[in-house]
Structure formats: C-alpha cells, structure tokens
C-alpha cells in the first residue's frame, strides 16, 4: 500500500484553500497555505491538469511590475444543491464548489400523498435550479422540519409531513439522482449558516419557530448531534402557560390554534403582528408567547450555557415584538442571560443556504481524500490522472 506523501498533502492543502477562497492570486495562495512558491506552483499545475484550477482575470493593482493572474475553480468541477423542504415553502439553492450561487428556486410546497411523488418533485426542482450548472452534481443536502438521525431518518416531522417519517424520503431521492443525498433538520441547517458566516461563535443555541418548533445547538463551533431521536425534541417541554407545551406556543400551527381559542379571528398567523389589535385576547396571546420564549431560553441557558440564542423562522417577527419583555424577565430570573438574537431570515432560502454549506464541507473533505488517495489509486489502475 502506498501512503500519501508530503507532496500529496501539500496538493490537498492548496486545493482546500482554492475551494475556500477562489478567485485568488498565487501570492495569496502562498500566504494562506504557508507553503513555498515552488511547492504551490507545482501543486497548482497538478490541479490544473486535474481540471480543478483555471486562470481567471488579472488584478487591478496599477504600478510597476507584472500583474498577478487570479486562480479560480472552473464550473466543470461540479455543483451542489441545498434544499429547504418545508411544510409550506420549499427552496432549492444550487452553487458551484466555491459556494457561488448558480440559481435558486423558491415555491410553495406541493401536497404529496406518496413519498416517491415528493422525491420526484424535489429532484425536478433541483434540476430546474441546476439547469445552467456545469460538471457533476456532487452532493444534495435537504433540510426538513423535523429531527434527523444519521442523515437518513426523519423523526417527529410537521403534521402535514407525517408521511416522510423514517428513511423513505432520503432513499427515494437518492434513487433518482447520481449524487449522494443527506437529510438534516431545518434548525441544524439554519445554525450551520450562522456558524459559517461568523467564525467567532463557540457555544450557541437556535430555535426554528415555524410550522413546528425545532432546536439546534453547537459546542466549540461544532453542531451538537444526539445519538437518539429524543435529542432536540425540546417542543414537548412545558411552556409555563397552563397545559401548553413549547411546541403549542412556539409553532405557527400551535400558536394559531391558541389564538383562535382565545377569540382572535385570525386568517393567518402573520396577522398577529401585521394587523393592529387592541382587544384583550391579543395581549393574552402575546403574553403567553413571551412566557414560552422565556421558558425556552431559560431551559437552554441552565443546561447548555450558550453565549447566544437565535430565533429564526416564520414567527421571528413576533419574537422581535416581545424581545424587550423577554430580556427584562430573564434579567430577573437568571444570573447570566445569553445574548438573544434574531436576524434576517428569508423563508426557504436561508435554510437552503445552510444546507449548501453542509454540502460544501462534505465535498471538500471528499475531494481532499481523493487527492490523498490518488497516487495509490493511479498506481493500481495505471492511470495518469486522479479519479475525482
């Protein structure tokens, strides 16, 4: 058996930086890898021969001396697809291996009674978004409103998506495409998007308050994943309001039911914050929602000790409304209150972006392994080029 050499590791390091930072100059590549000019030049030429590096434009710096040529990834290296498969909205984002958008599609989720029909519908959406993409589709990650174990099995999905419980959806999609397929929760995908955009975050928790309440957390900048389907099922806990659970008050379905029982004539949940209300039942609903938020943050504050707690999803605007009261109540009950944040969240697209980040991490590791194993593979097959 032929083990990877230092030359192989150098080539893999150069590929990692190109995948993360392209387009970039050779000087930038040398600085980021810490390798010598000769080593980087050799690795670049090998990657160019493999089809992973092409010359881009030239820099705009004026002055004496020769301007640098940017190195970039060609479109033929392939693409990935991140999917947000929600109960109401489905978004598909296709990017190149650098994470640059090729196209995205956001549509109302179709009502499917069969898993195979839903899989074909999702694959058609991916094909639509990838119409102008080049090279192979290398990875699909689909985020769903539910808990996911092992990237394949769905537990506790939204009521309207009960038919997708279990491994059927992942298997059905993978049977229709020539690419690996993994599933994840919408909360994990949302938190991954936040972690990717802010490398300073160490310990955090996230609540996805949409069709159902979903939860994610990270420790030392890494997503926490449990070994059983119970992990993340925080919605079953008491909200602190009567017999209502957290999911009853922090999901669109549950909160709409609660509001209607209190006499509010709401056609849709958004009317709670978009329409003016002066009646007492509206204040009662907001108070219950506030209590549920306080309870949820208190639970994770005393058990996980996060620095920040995020709220995303369809109910995020209502969180903004009650956030001053939430902070005030937490200041009175907790010795240390984590920072509570809400941010811009495009329904369908933001979660799909997090799924794309998951795709890119997987593909980058796979390509690195291919580089490290290429010499042995080529020797056994007597081929001159690595098999990517």
UniProtKB/TrEMBL annotation:
What domain of life? Answer: Bacteria
Example GO molecular function: DNA-binding transcription factor activity
Question: What's the protein name?
Answer: ROK family transcriptional regulator
Q: Identify the CDD domains for this entry.
A: ASKHA_ATPase_ROK
**Family label:** Belongs to the ROK (NagC/XylR) family.
| Organismal lineage | Bacteria, Bacillati, Actinomycetota, Actinomycetes, Kitasatosporales
Gene3D superfamilies the record matches: 3.30.420.40, Winged helix-like DNA-binding domain superfamily/Winged helix DNA-binding domain (1.10.10.10)
Every copy of the HTH marR-type domain together lies at 11-54
Task: Output the SUPFAM superfamilies linked to this UniProt entry.
Answer: Actin-like ATPase domain, Winged helix' DNA-binding domain
Q: Which InterPro entries match?
A: ATPase_NBD, HTH_MarR-typ, ROK, WH-like_DNA-bd_sf, WH_DNA-bd_sf
